[in-house]
Structure formats: C-alpha cells, structure tokens
Fold this sequence. Notes:
By secondary structure, the protein is an alpha+beta fold. The chain is 27% helix and 21% strand. The strands form six sheets. Strands 1, 13, 14, 15, 18 and 19 form a six-stranded antiparallel β-sheet that branches. Strands 2, 20, 21 and 22 form a four-stranded antiparallel β-sheet that branches. It is globular, with a radius of gyration of 22 Å.
Amino acid sequence: MRLAAAVAALGMLTAACGGSDSDDDNGDSAAATGGDLRIYSSEPAFLVPTAADDEPSIFVVRQMYRGLVKYNQDGEPEMDIAESIESDDNKTWTVTLKDGYTFTNGEPVDADSFLRAWNYAGNVNNAQNNSYFMNRIAGFDEMQKEGAKKDATFSGLKKVDDSSFTIELSSPFSGFVSVLGYSGFFPVAQECLDDWDACNKAPIGNGPYKIDGEWENNVQIKLTRNEDYAGEDKGKPDNLIYRIFDDVDTAYAAFEGGELDVMYTVPPNKLAEVEQNYGDTLLKEPSSSFTYLGLPTYDKRFQDKKLRQALSMAIDRESIINAIFDGALSPASGFVAPNFDGAREGICEFCEYDPDAAKALYDESEGITGPVELWANGGAGHEEWLQAIGDGWKSALGIDYKLKVDVNDFGAYLKIADDKKFTGPYRLGWGPDYPVMETYLAPLYTTGASSNNSGYANPTFDDLLKQGDGADSLQDAIPFYQQAEDLLAEDMPVIPMWWGLTTVVWSDNVTEMVHNPITDVDYGQLSMSS
C-alpha cells in the first residue's frame, strides 16, 4: 500500500492497538453509535478494488467492500466472506463462501464475483494497479502478454459452483491465505465491470457502508451505513464523510476548528502541540509504515550503485528526525518493518551516517551533475526534511539540489511514479498489505512489479523471492526473503529513511477509537457520542 501521509498511521503486529477515552470499553459497542463521522482524507486515486492501491483509496474501499479474509487484532488472517480456504499442497486452494452476502445493487457475492474481479485485474488490457498481486495465479504470464485477448481469463481459476471455486497457483505459496486479505482481492459486481468509470465514481460494494451519491473529487466522499450488509461487523456511525484536503496543514486547522472528527496523520511540525493538546484523544505509537527516498534507476545518472550508496550515507537521519519530527520516528536500518517476523536491525550498512565514507564512495562513482531534483508530493509537510537531505548532500558531496514539491494531488503524483517520470530522488512511503515480510519486498522491488517505481531489476532478487514463496512454511521462507533483502542493502534502489509513527487524533464526538495493525483505523467501528 502506497502511503500518502507524512507520518502514516499503521500499528505494530506485536502490539495490536486501539484507543478509547471511554470508561465503557467492555465490548458493548451498541451503547455508542450513530452520527456523522467526519474524516480527513487526501484525494484517492481509485475506488474500485482492482485499481485502488494507495492509502487514501484503500481507506475508503475497505469500508465499502469485504473480501475472503480479514486481519484480527494480532495481525493474523481469519475468514471473512470465505467459510474456508483449504489446500493440501499450498498450490491448489479450494475456497468455500458463506451465504447471504450481496452487493448494494442486489447482485450476489458468489464465486463469479471473485473470479470476474481477479480475471479483470490480471488482464493486461485493463491496466489495473493491482494486477501484480494476481501474479501467483496460474496463467498470469499469458494474461500479461502483449496481444492477450480482452476476455482472457486465468487458467488457474475454476468455478466449482456458486459458493466455491479453486485457485491453482503457478507454484506453491504457504502465505497465500494471508495475502488474500489485501483489498485488491475483493469481489466486484458485474454491473461495475460493465461500466467501470461509473463504478469508480459511484462504487457498488458489498461491505458495511455504501456510497451516498457520487465521489465529489477533491471535495468529499460520503458513505452511509449499508443496512443490508450480511456481516457481523455492522457499521456504527450513520455516515462516514471523507473530507478531502490537498494540504495537511489546512486539514489540521479544520480539525482544530471542529470541522473534522478524525485526523489519521498530523503535520510533522505539530506533533508536540498535538500531544500537549489532545493527549486523551491521541493514538501515538511506532508503526510499520516505511518512508524511503526512491532512486530512479531507469535514469542512467542513478545507475551507479556507489553513487546510490554515497547518497544514503550522506543523510543524517537521526538529526533530521530530532530536528523536524521531535525524535518521534525511528531511523530505518533495513527494508522490512522491525516488528515483522524475519526483520533484522542494522542490515543496511549504507544507512549509517558517515559523510567521509560517503565522499569516498562518491569519488569512486561516476558522480552526478547538479542540481539534483528532489521530489515529494506537495501539501504534506515534506519540504523541510527534503531540504535537510539536500543540504547534507551539498555539504558532504558538493551536489547542488532543488526541491520539486509542486504536485499536491497524490493520485497525480503516483501517476508520475508509475510512468517513471521522476527526474531525481523521490519521496514515497509503504505500508504492509498483509502480515508477511514479503509485503515489503515483492511489490516494491521485483522486476516489473506494480509499485517498483525505482525500476530496480535483479534476477537473483526475483529468484530468491520465488524460493521463499515455494518454502513449506512462512518460517522456512524467511531465510530466502532475508537474502533478497540483503541484495537491496547492497544495491540501494531506494534509500530507507525511517519507520513511522501512528498519530491518530480524534474529536470529543468519538468515544472509542478502533485501530487494526494491518488495515489501520477502522472508521466503521468507531463509536460516537451521539
């Protein structure tokens, strides 16, 4: 999941979190529900699950849709719409669905609804952002070939009956059930695919909330409780109103003015103030969100890994964090969140600040002619720390720089990333889509992966991930994933910056905050005072 925020809100697997300012926290959730919940959001890119892969989009999608699997408060997968998902060999899986679920247009949530969504996502002609996540299903390569038919479908997907289907993977993968909780695997109604653009504007979901009217771009998205939802996790607030801002400072001012109930991110320069003023309605703890500085390896100026290593070693992460983020973040010394199984501290030798070593590496490299353009999405508070990086490079390496932070629309910024149009190092973030360490590796660095915005390509890395996937268990997979991470630490296609901080602040209208370690704030489960 690509993150929009400066300080994203994601919790830790090892410390499932939640917060409440209510003494009545005994699980009697019916005691405090209803009302309009006004939520800060930046502009999503898409609202159809097959395409939505960015944080603002997924936050909305997860309230309108439900999938086979969900994640509990320990970050572990459990059945949601699926009654069971079984396999004897980790390669062929049989899915049996629960009865009674429908889309908001009345179509059944059945085997067809999943198969059509995955076939649509995987077909190259449809150019869906989440196509990559289908890559383990047998037939993916044929679906992605130039000239593939528009109605081509996966050879690995077979309908058994309305309530069950089978999935054949191209090779065994013990973590497949965990992956299925990602929103890119949610079902889609036939009416949605018949007019995809209309569905993106007014989604046809199957979750506890449904859209009220249409997505008002750059203004708001209003969801209302879906009274026909068949799941047990009924929506609590009457309405979820995502108010869209292109500037986090403006959004925070709106929160302080009583115009918002939940801010899932806080401007970096407001962290201390928020802690002082909203200590009782603030969720603050280390998160799994990864901020990095990507290096466009598709640009020949950045193809020398010694240059990339030097750029990383010339960044004083600790000083930047202390000066700009009040010491609230944790410098990254690897590529996998510290709380994930298989993560290791300190594997990134070139993440250590050492300006002399950086200069030595730089002198051994082909160098670069400045000014180097440093990119970030605007309106999200990234200017100050990017400037600190640029100043560090100028001081240690003699490289001049200029900031490129004039794209406020996060969707437009992601389009530049996807089109590989960045003309210099770029800021992006990443949060886990599922509780397997591979979620930090494959989508970002596998050759041709959908979020591989640096253009990194290393066949050995790709092969190690395949070996990990093919292991008998997730524990057996970890050594292969770690070897792949070691390659990243040497090649440095991105520069790890820091691990984030969950900072969710809410108004007095909210009496219970609910936060999931994988899927973040569960807006539909928040209790309200009236």
